Amino acid sequence: MKRLWFALAALAYSAAAQQQSALNPAGPQSGRIAGLWWFFFYLLGAIFIIVMLIMLRTLMRGHRNAEENQPLENHERAQTRETRLRSIVTVSSVVTVVLLFILLVASISIGKANADLGASGKPMIIQVIGNQWWWQFSYLNDDPSQVLTTANEIHIPIGKTVLIQGQSNDVIHSFWVPNLHGKRDLIPSRVTTEYIRADRPGIYRGQCAEFCGLQHAHMAFYIVAEPEDKFKAWMQAQLQPAVAPATPALAQGQQNFLNYACVYCHQIRGTTASGTNGPDLTHFGSRRTIAAGTLPNTPGNLGGWIVNPQSIKPGNHMATIAVKPDDLQPMIQYLESLK
Amino acid sequence: MASLRYSKSAFFAAALLLASCQREKHDIQPAPTRLAIYGDAARQSALRPGGSVKPQPVVTNPYNASGYDISEGQRLYDWYNCSGCHFAGGGGIGPPLIKKEWIYGGEPANLFDTIVKGRPNGMPSWGGRIPEYQIWQIVAYVRSMNGEQPTSATPTRPDTIETNPQNLVNRVPGATK
Question: Does residue A285 contact residue A336 with C-beta atoms inside 8 Å?
Fold first, then answer.
């Protein structure tokens, strides 16, 4: 039984690890990065083994050397020893320099290759704004009605180059989806860019990779890579304003949301809630997680989060407000209905 | 005897450290208490209708003594758009907040009352809309604009270039003003 649990836990762990792993590349850049990693791994692993073998050999014959090394040795013998030592040092220095140079060339050329991905065509632009401690994503478009702002979860079409435009609202964050690319810092008052492309459909977890304060560890997001037609359907659905409440209970929930302090920070398009300090909740019910990848999006978790966000992410900027128990249930139902 | 002296100095060192720790104190789970309106504490005059003079209760700001609360107040001052009317404290649409003479009083209880109840000609009422602890944090920030934060919440190193050496002395935590 214990063994079964262990196997299950290992399976769950490896599944989660596949979702956020630089060794499970889903795009051309992460593929190159993974290739570079394995190149480093095998080359340096071989060097490590060789060095260890040489050291073992030296340790074993150490005693004989000590006997040889007597003050009485003659001049000729000393000279041959010196020549031999000199050639060994020369050869190993040259080998070290050449190897380091190879590694340098390999990593620089892969860095260059990765930067060139978006050179052709006009890519889709996603603006990423880092906040303590959540992500705001905007799909930029020349047509303002097609600009979509959402939070903590984005969808991208597979096989298409996407330009990430990184910014920050407060401190330095870092945008990192290991399955797609390396890290890119988001720096206040500056725009940083990175091209990404997913070739395989899947759900990839990203994570802030630059320490940004109390809840840095709970600042994750998901990228859903899917075929273009599915992506377009998702995009069209997300561009719509929030669905109107269908039942009286949901209408009550909407009223409750609008009556409490929620509206100072959160936006629900199609209602009067228009705060911009916190994540946009227009299609909250369609997201997989709440609180920036901290908890699965379930009614129970959402209730806990609304009532006491500071117990789940201590120090986060969501206010602890006194929601009356009778008001809470319709509010949860309403938010979960925002598909 | 020597050990006693050492323990004494250790005690003073610890006390000094603890005093400076207050600046970093941080209520990790503030309770969303129901708003209590400090009507009497916030009165400007002891005169009351009906003649009887009640002693006024003293209300202190529970979120006052730490640098964290003041910086939270600064963030909320922008988030809740206080800066929309009062700007960075210099005033614009609304009156300035960096000043000596306050129409409705400048004590923490007065400021709390002003935010909770609102005031004529534009100041909206925030009572029951945002949690009480956040109002206190904003009060702490507004007080700090005027340099009236407790010394425990004052950084030992000034954020600005200080030209008056007298001010530098006052920035030592625990020093009296």
Answer: yes
Closest CA to A164 of A195, A204, A118: A195
Protein fold of A248-336: Immunoglobulin-like (2.60.40)
CA–CA dist A157, A231 (Å, integer):
6
Residues of B with Cβ-Cβ distance to A308 under 8 angstroms = 29
What's the CATH architecture for B60-151+163-177?
Answer: Orthogonal Bundle (1.10)
pTM attached to this predicted model: 0.81
Q: Which residues of A touch B129 (CB under 8 A)?
A: 261, 264
Helices (H), chain A: 2-19, 28-60, 62-68, 75-115, 228-239, 248-259, 299-307, 309-312, 325-336
Place of tokens 């006009």: A122
Q: Is B128 on the interface with A (CB under 8 A)?
A: no
**What are the extents of the domains in chain A?**
2-117, 248-336
Cβ distance A165 to A193 under 8 Å?
Answer: yes
Q: How far is A148 from chain B (nearest CA, A)?
A: 22
DSSP label of A20: T
Q: How far apart are CA A281 and CA A338, in angstroms?
A: 8
Please say whether the beta carbons of B132 and B36 come within 8 A: yes
Q: Strand A183-186 vs strand A289-290: parallel, antiparallel, or unpaired? A: unpaired
SS3 A135: strand
- CA distance linking residue A334 with residue B67, whole number of Å: 38
CA angle at A196 for the pair A193 and A199, rounded to the nearest 5° = 175
Structure confidence by residue, pLDDT tens digits, A16-67 = 668 899 999 999 999 999 999 999 999 999 999 999 999 999 888 866 555 5
DSSP string, B1-20: -HHHHHHHHHHHHHHHHHHH
Q: Do B33 and A322 touch (CB under 8 A)?
A: yes
pLDDT digits (tens, 9 = 90+) for A239-280: 999 999 999 999 999 999 999 989 999 999 999 999 999 999
- Identify the residue whose tokens are 């704004």: A129
Name every chain B residue with its beta carbon within 8 A of the beta carbon of A310.
28-30
d(CA B89, CA B106): 14
